[in-house]
Backbone:
């Protein structure tokens, strides 16, 4: 679609609005919207299970904190494309002008309603996939179906884990993420640790034989499994290296930076969360510098093509003319890990999972920990 020629840079403004909305603006929009005593028009309000939550939003106290769930997923052309690689809660305290980013590991083991009468334990990143697939899961509750079903089921899972109500969600796939960074002209990211990753997956190379015969592959598969087996197929991966310090990144590089998992120096989900925090702060800083918030209504349709959300156009328009200054808000991070609330274990079918230290499905201590940390910031 060809954008009209106006006296401002559409691509930069689109990028700014996309980034800030995906990571922060939604929280402020919610504050403005709910302080006017209205309720959002979302599919979830049709479900009796959400009636009490909607009522609470109608009586929302603008002095109190609220939460937005952010999701990043692979999208079309990626293996497991509907699994959410990134799960982050944006906790906003309007009166205190602070934002807390809460990162949730994707290996968190949580019970999910795969049918109206059946719940099963899955890794939390699977919630978005279940909600996004009405063919494989046709008997889900109504609020977990349709175009925002993935986001709604992810909100359900995050509420269970954190004990915090999820007022809205925003999700973006890898292509949307890369476009955001590239349209910004790239970003400068503070890399916390120098690291190498020799096993970053190459898109489209997942099934290459790497010169091995069928007999050799069968022999390897008989004695190996999982990532140990995958490491035998070097041609499916590329080598990444990031040096500590401020590094300029385009969209493709930024995506690799936040997705990398198999580094000996800085690997795994917890290290990846630290990198995501660093990148988000870089995105926010550059986005704020564009100072283009008032152009939002003219760009909503383009923005809607980059993300999925249960926010609507009327809500977004309330931002215009309010003079929000995001630079006034302090940003903090809270990483849930084995250092505080989780312990490592395996599921009955051998998956690596994270469960509360109090035991699988027992979230009370985690809820109390999160509440205490939010009060301390």
Residues:
């Amino acid at each position: 679609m060809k954008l009209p020629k106006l006296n401002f840079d559409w691509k930069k403004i689109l990028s700014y609005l996309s980034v800030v909305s995906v990571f922060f603006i939604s929280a402020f929009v919610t504050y403005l919207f709910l302080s006017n005593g209205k309720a959002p028009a979302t599919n979830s309000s049709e479900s009796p299970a959400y009636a009490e939550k909607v009522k609470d939003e109608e009586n929302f106290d603008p002095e109190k904190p609220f939460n937005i769930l952010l999701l990043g997923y692979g999208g079309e052309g990626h293996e497991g494309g509907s699994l959410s690689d990134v799960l982050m809660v944006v906790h906003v305290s309007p009166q205190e002008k602070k934002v807390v980013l809460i990162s949730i590991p994707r290996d968190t083991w949580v019970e999910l309603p795969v049918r109206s009468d059946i719940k099963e334990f899955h890794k939390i990143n699977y919630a978005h996939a279940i909600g996004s697939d009405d063919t494989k899961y046709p008997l889900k509750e109504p609020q977990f179906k349709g175009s925002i079903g993935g986001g709604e089921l992810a909100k359900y899972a995050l509420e269970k884990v954190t004990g915090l109500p999820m007022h809205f969600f925003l999700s973006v796939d890898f292509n949307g993420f890369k476009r955001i960074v590239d349209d910004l002209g790239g970003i400068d990211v503070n890399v916390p640790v120098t690291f190498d990753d020799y096993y970053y997956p190459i898109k489209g190379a997942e099934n290459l034989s790497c010169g091995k015969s069928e007999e050799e592959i069968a022999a390897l598969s008989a004695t190996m499994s999982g990532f140990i087996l995958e490491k035998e197929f070097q041609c499916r991966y590329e080598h990444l290296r990031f040096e500590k310090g401020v590094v300029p990144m385009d969209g493709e590089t930024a995506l690799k930076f936040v997705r990398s998992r198999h580094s000996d120096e800085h690997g795994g989900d917890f290290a990846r969360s630290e990198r995501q925090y660093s990148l988000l702060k870089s995105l926010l800083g550059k986005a704020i510098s564009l100072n283009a918030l008032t152009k939002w209504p003219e760009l909503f349709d383009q923005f809607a093509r980059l993300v999925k959300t249960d926010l609507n156009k009327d809500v977004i328009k309330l931002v215009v003319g309010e003079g929000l200054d995001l630079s006034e808000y302090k940003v903090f991070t809270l990483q849930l890990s084995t250092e505080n609330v989780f312990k490592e274990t395996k599921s009955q079918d051998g998956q690596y999972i994270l469960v509360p230290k109090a035991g699988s499905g027992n979230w009370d201590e985690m809820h109390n920990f999160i509440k205490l940390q939010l009060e301390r910031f």
User: Anything to note?
Assistant: Residues 1-60 have pLDDT under 50 and may be disordered. The chain has twelve helices and 14 strands. The first helix runs from residue 10 to 35.
